Structures
1.
Amino acid sequence: MLTALPVVEPQAPVLLLVDRGRIAQVFDNLIENALKYNPSGVPPQIRLWEDGADARFSVVDHGAEIPEAERDRIFDRPYRASSAQSITDTGMGLGLYICRRIVEEHGGRIWVEPTAGGGSTFNVALPRAHRQIELVWRPPTPSGAV
């Protein structure tokens, strides 16, 4: 099923030095969770912006709010929030743990906050690249050549 999601984009590109596939896995997991655990039917909002030395990404949903006592533990392995268990019985409780590991391997952090009006906002902060790096390949010189 395809779902149109509102996205708030930055005015200029945000440069990151990351493993694109691994960071895409984080985004996919957070968006998939926001859709899966959202009985209200209101699509989650996705935001991307620069915040000082960080690039920030958030997924704002209007589903079940994660209880305050569980907000740190949901990133542990394996853990499922009590509010998630009442909505669906699927999942192993590994997704957010994997997200945390990937984000931390990139020098970033991930956390959750309550969404105004109900739900949860998952936030990711990753260090921005402060300069563009150009990679140039040069063929090896034959041995003995100067």
2.
Amino acid sequence: MIYDHLFKIVIFGDKDVGKSCLLSQYVNKTFTEKKYLDIGIEFKFKELIIDNIKIKVQIWTINNDDIIMNYNNPNGFIIIYDVTNKDSFKYIENKINIIRNYYTIENIPIIIIGNKIDKNNRNITLEEVNEFSKKNNIMNIEASIKHNINVDLIFEKLLKKILEQNPKSVKFNSISIYFMIILIFMIALIFTILFII
């Protein structure tokens, strides 16, 4: 597939908020309650079309704060909190300024996700989130990753914002890269044969 843009998105948040689940639900349309050993980093690719623009997005989940600060050239961030866990929201408050101070991209797109809205014991109001989002000039969406509620909308909203900041289209084709490598190899081989002869 030839695509117009290649974007990198980083997902992070406090423990057990649904980072890996979001990645799996969005890319593979699967969800599991099983908790795996926290390995620090996961990533997947997704190809999609938004407003007739072909996009390939590389999505990373980060479980280590130090890794966040060492990730090169992200185009946007998704930060997840659990609407039933007040501490997971405080985690977001502590990280947004760090991101903006560390990365040189002006107004790097950030969207915060209130996960687990399917549960009855929420501990964070939508009013709190909206006020926080307005104050920090970021986007927010509430979702249930388990039930696939608003999962696609999360990425659509963030990618549209990223596109606003990266309107220039650069054609990419992963297959053409391999052909180029083969061509260079063939030219080198021909020169080698001619030299021997």
3.
Amino acid sequence: MKPPTRKRVVRFNDLRVVALPWLAVAGLFAEPSPAVAQSAATGSPSGAPTNSPAWLKTTEPRQLTWGAFEFHPRLREGLIYDDNILYSTKNQQSDLINQLAPGIQIVGGDRSSLRSYVSSYEDLNQSLDLTRLTPSWLVLRPSESWPDKFMLLDYSPRWQMFTHHSANDSLDQFLTFNSVWPMSKLVVGIRQDYRYEKTTIVQAYTRSEVEQIHSEADAGYRLNDKFSVDSAFERQELSYPGSTNLMGYVEWKGTVSLNRQMIETFNVSLVLAGGQDDVGSGLNQTFEQVGGRVRYDYSRLFSIDGSVGIEDRQFDTGRGDTLSPVFTLGATYKPWERAYLRTGIARQQSASLYDGYYNSSIGGYLTLHKDFTDRFSLQTDLGYYQTDSTPIQNVPNTSKPSDYYSVQLKGNLKLLKYLDAQAFYVFRGSGISQNNNVLQDNQCSVQLSLHY
């Protein structure tokens, strides 16, 4: 899923290709499930790892191993045409962007146990993303089904080279570390993410360097067959190292959940959370949240994960406290073999991109995926969200809400055993609620991905 003059950044920091990535981490308490309906590898722009469907794995892949570690190198090369690289209303610039992204994923631990655990989900045509596997997800399942302890390190640099506007060239960095240690009833885990990239900031209508550091320590304990408890402590820092006029924050957050298993596939939880947004002297904010969460899996066809609650937010500026609803809801439906539909909606609050405000954001997404053959798949992604900025001082609010939307079409073709080709088209824009400030951007991309 962060130097002395560093500025900080709002959460919406990876909106170059998809307008709603924040929904993966938005909401009251819910972390994204590591098990999702299976899709073909799509070569994500970040160079992040993806799992291929079970029906694509016709033979057992070769392994690069050393002791308890297994190595999976990869290489992605892509060309992107963007008709508005700065996402601006005036003096729009188009360019052809070349991206080169090598990468490696290292997995350590009892690989046989881990491979069996992953295969149990592939048998259901689901993928298990080990970079997102957490104790709070495992603790809801019987301890006898847990894998042995493991660690995973994934790293990918990415060179971006602009044909005509070389001032935007960048060397980006993406790093993920995840370690989970299951015991008899207790599961503990540590996760660290680092992202540094030069990308479009749609709220600021510009292109800027963005740095994000996310640290998390988790623990879960099964009290008995029906009850479990889990906790998480997170620190998230987001910043614009090269910006002089954009603000952000460092967020500290703790969460505790008491879970009750009603039936094998249905869990309800009482969740308490609280934390602080460090924005700057006299501008900090604290918050407390209370709510409930429901998780339900119906066979292989349908699953739902939702939470709803109330957030009380306080401000160092002396502004009165605010009491607001926060929620997240996600669902996956698999109507037939090799196809799924995924949707979600969330509302969250955060410190603002600009000094003197905080944001309330609500939005949703819809994904349609279809594997037509063992080698070819298509996917459509739709997204929309709206952000209201409210002053943290006791002054009238004269700001207008801002909205953002995106449509993405992408196809994946498996050329060889270790070689995939992808094609993307993205249309995105903003200003539906402000008819005098409508922005639009089109992107087309072709990529080749070599993975081992």
